[in-house]
Amino acid sequence: MPEAVAAVETASIQPLSEKDREDVAWLGSILKNPANEDETRAGAATRLLNMNHPEAMEPLERALRSGDESHIRVVLSVMRGRMILPRELLLAGVEAIRDVPESGIEPLAVVLAQHERTTLPALAELVRDKDEETSVRRKAIESLGSFRSRGAAVELIGLLDPARDESEAIIEAACLSLKRATGLPYEVEPERWRAWWEQARDLPDEEWLTNMVQRLAEQLLAKEREIQKQRERAARIERRLAETYRDLFPRHSIDEQIRALPELLDDALPTVRGFALDTVSRLLRDSVRIPEELQQKIIAHLNDDEPVLRIQAAQILDQLNVDGAVEHLSTRLQEETQPEVVTGILELLRRRPVAHVIPAVLPRLEQSEFREPAARVLWAIVREANPDEVDRQTIHDAVRAHEDWTRTPTLARLVAATLANGDLEIVEALLDADDVPVRLAVAEGMLVRGLLQPLLDRASDPELYPFALRAAERTEGDAARFRAVVRLAPPEAHEPRWREAVLRAAARLDGEALLDADNQLIATAYVTESLRAEILQRSVDLYPEIEDEDVRQQLVVRYAQTLLRLNDLARAHEVMQLLNERPLEGMAREVRFEVALLVGDYSAAAAVHSQPGAWLEAVDRIEASWPDRVRDLVAHIQERFQGQLNE
């Protein structure tokens, strides 16, 4: 009967409209893009959840199963507190147990516990399945501790049955989860837990809940006592710190502070060691030289018991810029287990990219919580450290081995940037994928690898246009580069970027090439007069260097004509002064004449045409484009040619 009901419900679901499908794809891309703020991604997840349709649930389910802590955190934030959630989404949450980082188990379990009727049976299957990986079973067992229900206790107690012959790891996990679920003070003591269950299994629900609340209250009281002890310990530390401050500041000189630091760095109190490291950081900011003895102690603090101090030591080591700093960080990375320290070291290695850290970084690609920062380190190495082909191939093979590399922008970018010939077709196809972040990442990688033609072929794609433009700017030869850039008709949003690229390419042209370039600009419909003017300005800069007189004259005249069309009459007149010492013919002569008339330099105009006919013909042309200049011109013609006009 239940299957029949479910089938009817499924059959009654109407397919999404095309617009709704576009919305789902768009919202899904926002959700999975780690560059977006959590609030933005949560908003996209909320909209998908509110659509209440299987197709809208798919991006949420993928996020939960991704193993990416940030994806899971965002989706859980919108699931938390909802009284009703789709069954498939909740089951995806159960599946997420497999890949969720340790730090994400409890938040996930809290949401699953709110929907116990759906999630407990699925979790129970994972818990009982001896063929499942132990690490997965342990995560599932740990999550049952958040349920705090009789049903969860049944599953946990069942694991302690000697007949099941469970491993020590599973028994330990079950006992600790029972402790968390019930609040009882028992540890890894299967016999005590079984004895408790014999008494508790038949308790009425009301008494069960009462006992649970009472034990949780006792746990809370114990926590408060522990907090009080910590406050007292903190007070002692604060007194010690106060004594340290009094000893060091402001009485002591820099030299005295440096002499006192080794003892402070060796102090048993983490806060005092942290204060000493802070002091070293401050001295570095003040450009104080740190002695070798202190440098060695800071290196030793890469192995400090406190993770926060290991991070601090790594950051100081980076600031010190000592020989072997990267090697020390690389060694620590291979041994480190604390996520925040691993992430911190990876960030420092990203800022100091060198190829020999590749073996230390690659294993972190296998860990989902470090995949992104590790990929960023490798990207910095590929882009800035100029690794040899062997290192590139090593990176390529390691990244290519990830089955989801085609769906992960940072991985796809690395594959493209370290591309081997055999994968060119696959990677090039990703330039046309629906996933925009992946397309952009692949384009960036291909640009670094020098694979320019596939990018130039996709200049019509607004998303890939900036990469096509950068590819065009890498064309060999100044004239060829200019032609390649100009040919890339820009979408409106990218017009300023294209304009700057054209100007950069034009700045490298000599005189004759500049004339050919202007011919291309004239023949290109989307080139504006203002852009031509900016480029032709170079003819003025290059004027003394251009040996061919005809080329020089053509460039100056073209520049002046362009300025006239832009109504910059004064500048046009100034430019034409470059040709004053030379006799002009044809177009150049007429441009000099017209510019002189427009700015009122009638003596210069008369030097070109002394007869009134040319002046009268110019009146009609000027009236059409510059009517405000006609009145003064006509008055001057009447005055200059009065006798000839009467005749």
Short description:
By secondary structure, this protein is mainly alpha-helical. The protein has helices at 2-12, 18-32, 38-51, 54-65, 69-79, 87-96, 105-113, 116-128, 134-144, 150-159, 168-182, 190-200, 205-248, 254-265, 270-285, 292-300, 307-320, 325-335, 339-351, 358-361, 371-384, 389-400, 409-417, 424-430, 436-449, 453-456, 465-472, 478-487, 495-506, 511-522, 529-542, 549-565, 569-576, 586-599, 602-608, 612-625, 630-640, 642-646. It has 38 helices and no strands.
Task: Give the CA-based shape.
Answer: elongated
Roughly how much helix do the residues carry, as a percent range?
A: over 70%
CATH architecture of the domain at 17-220: Alpha Horseshoe
Distance between the termini: 115 Å
- How many strands? 0
Query: What structural class should be given to the helix and strand makeup?
Result: mainly alpha
Query: What Rg, in angstroms, do the CA atoms define?
Result: 38 Å
Mean pLDDT: 88
| Total number of helices | 38
Using the coordinates above, name the CATH class of the domain at 17-220. Answer: Mainly Alpha
Uncertain regions: pLDDT < 50 for 5+ in a row? 1-11
Residue share in β-strands: under 5%
The biggest beta sheet reads: none
Structure description:
By secondary structure, the protein is mostly helical. Helix 4 (54-65) runs parallel beside helix 6 (87-96). The protein has 38 helices and no strands. Helix content is 71%, strand content 0%. It has helices at 2-12, 18-32, 38-51, 54-65, 69-79, 87-96, 105-113, 116-128, 134-144, 150-159, 168-182, 190-200, 205-248, 254-265, 270-285, 292-300, 307-320, 325-335, 339-351, 358-361, 371-384, 389-400, 409-417, 424-430, 436-449, 453-456, 465-472, 478-487, 495-506, 511-522, 529-542, 549-565, 569-576, 586-599, 602-608, 612-625, 630-640, 642-646. The radius of gyration is 38 Å and the shape is elongated. The chain starts with a helix and ends with a helix. The longest helix is centred in the middle third of the chain and has 44 residues, at 205-248. The model is unreliable at 1-11 (pLDDT under 50). The chain has a domain at 17-220: Leucine-rich Repeat Variant (Alpha Horseshoe), CATH 1.25.10.
